[in-house]
Amino acid sequence: MNLSGKRIGGLLAAAGVIVVLIVATLALRSHPSSSPSTGAATSHPAATATPNGTPPPMTTRAPGVPDRAYQTLREIDAGRWPGSADAPGTKGGDQWMNRGGDLPRTDPAGKKITYREWDVNPKKPGQSRDAERIITGSDSSAYYTGDHYGTFTRMR
């Protein structure tokens, strides 16, 4: 078979593209929550760590906050939510703007608090996401809302 330099170069370029596609596919398979085609948010650890890097302890439970919300908060603190829900469409880690000012805008030192929102429950196939959310703050706070931001209960 008689191959010209251009033909060899073209074959090498095509092989390179194939290798890149294989590597990209393998990388996406090892991180399913980051796949843009699923519509699921990527998992961002909540900004809830204490100065030594551990989440603040939850010593008491707030009345009216279901156990499931505390289980989800533990997953958030560990950086595993929403991926550990193993349910496509479960959201978590997106910025929550606090537009209505329902939660504190600054910490006691005057530093701006930023918030992220998380689904409490895994999304069920064929159904819309439910109303339960957890809001985590950059000041280590966490709030539960069972009525889609109508009311908030401080979890910590």
TrEMBL record:
Keyword Hydrolase included in the entry's annotation: yes
Keyword annotations of the record: Hydrolase, Nuclease
Annotated Low complexity bias: 30-52
Record has NADP as a keyword: no
GO molecular function terms attached to this record: hydrolase activity; RNA binding; RNA endonuclease activity
Residues covered by region (Disordered): 30-109
InterPro entries: N1-like (IPR000026), Ribonuclease/ribotoxin (IPR016191)
SUPFAM superfamilies attached to this UniProt entry: Microbial ribonucleases
Designated name of the protein: Ribonuclease
